[in-house]
Amino acid sequence: xxxxxxxxxxxxxxxxxxxxxxxxxxxxxxxxxxxxxxxxxxxxxxxxxxxxxxxxxxxxxxxxxxxxxxxxxxxxxxxxxxxxxxxxxxxxxxxxxxxxxxxxxxxxxxxxxxxxxxxxxxxxxxxxxxxxxxxxxxxxxxxxxxxxxxxxxxxxxxxxxxxxxxxxxxxxxxxxxxxxxxxxxxxxxxxxxxxxxxxxxxxxxxxxxxxxxxxxxxxxxxxxxxxxxxxxxxxxxxxxxxxxxxxxxxxxxxxxxxxxxxxxxxxxxxxxxxxxxxxxxxxxxxxxxxxxxxxxxxxxxxxxxxxxxxxxxxxxxxxxxxxxxxxxxxxxxxxxxxxxxxxxxxxxxxxxxxxxxxxxxxxxxxxxxxxxxxxxxxxxxxxxxxxxxxxxxxxxxxxxxxxxxxxxxxxxxxxxxxxxxxxxxxxxxxxxxxxxxxxxxxxxxxxxxxxxxxxxxxxxxxxxxxxxxxxxxxxxxxxxxxxxxxxxxxxxxxxxxxxxxxxxxxxxxxxxxxxxxxxxxxxxxxxxxxxxxxxxxxxxxxxxxxxxxxxxxxxxxxxxxxxxxxxxxxxxxxxxxxxxxxxxxxxxxxxxxxxxxxxxxxxxxxxxxxxxxxxxxxxxxxxxxxxxxxxxx
Length: 633
Known about the structure:
Number of helices: 18
Strand content: 5-15%
Largest sheet: 8 strands, mixed
């Protein structure tokens, strides 16, 4: 999606031949007329033949006998070749007849007038276009394509009984669909479909790279589809999941300066192969709407393998919009942050911008093309072609919602850290997208706008600023910190170092602990003793007071006094205070209504119970003896 490789420009060299088509036709007619004039009449031809025969008769007689056998052999071979040619011609005629019949049947199915079916016509035109690309050489592709467009413009209106502008609009619609959404694009096959987010030249793969193949549900059609990714395992507890841009793939490798930063930091890397164009299944490009489902599949895959893994999402161009869209789909807690590099916030707005500011100028720069395709850069035509795409593709095949704006929803409803990168000179995705995304984003956020940088060129234009913002951002999400100090009242540390630092990833919980120090009493704490790691670096201070020997005794007395008071403020008795006299007085004062319980572990109280029990047993024994001897008397 870079301007200099705008898909539509791939057609430029071919469409430039359109203006010569009529000239070519007229030239062919002129050549035919001139050729017919150069052929001699039968009388003149007869004279030439007689003169040629007379001058050559003696030579022919001398060689006639020697050449007779060779002529007979040659004649026999020619007859065989003629038979083969006849067979080939017959087969070709049969094939052409069958194709004409199929063509006529297809045209009949499209319908005429009020029964004209635009979707069937688009399929019909698409097949014709595909045939031109498949059967044409590089030398005649432009002419054949020009002939197809002219033929459709001139013949289809009468063939299908519709207005010529309808045919123009539908041909333009198919060309837009082929470039922007089709898996196997005819026009994109002419050039390298690379928007700068994946390597355009062979860069190779990082060590320990493994190709991963999975199967997942394609929510676009409800069917299972193949999914592909490349995984770089560096045995880290942190993983960066990466998605490339428009029609991007990893065929040339995964090594780039942007991704080097992650690799050199020791993180695991997971490169998602784009659906439709990058090695995964799927039939259409959907600008992040369904590509984000593929990202979620790989997030879940990574968590299943490594449940405690911390994950960062990174995307460039359409890949950035894909990652932002994933945030709108209930991401797990393991996802700690996102870096979006030159992404767009709305599919609808981006398609409109691309059409009016890039496609229209490119096509209209080719003289004569405007007479074949109605391309004007205004809102009327934006609405026209988006409506035609919606009616014939988005609602039927792609199930694409242009106005849902998943990237905006994802950035606005999640609080994970966000780094937004863009170039001020980006003429593919306007820099205004970055400011809009930044303004609506929740949670910690940072933005880098690189002056003079084009689409996806921020790191290339200003690597110092790029790396600094990236380094700071990675620290925020992967290395948050909470400092804990233990001080006396004079600010002196009670531990060997100045402070203890707790480390964690963004959003994880932390909890500090109060410690015990000999000869010190805890006084107070400053700061949140527990919470979540964030971009901030809070300091929790525990303050203690040193206790002297005299204060220890006073504190001991105070503690004893406090311990000897009950809930009503009455004095509690301890084991040193308890005597029989005191117990008696207590019982008398309570009038027997409250039982005086011994202090736990009071040995004297246990002795009283033993003596009392013995006395009671003696009394009982004396009574029994008295009763016994009394009976004998």
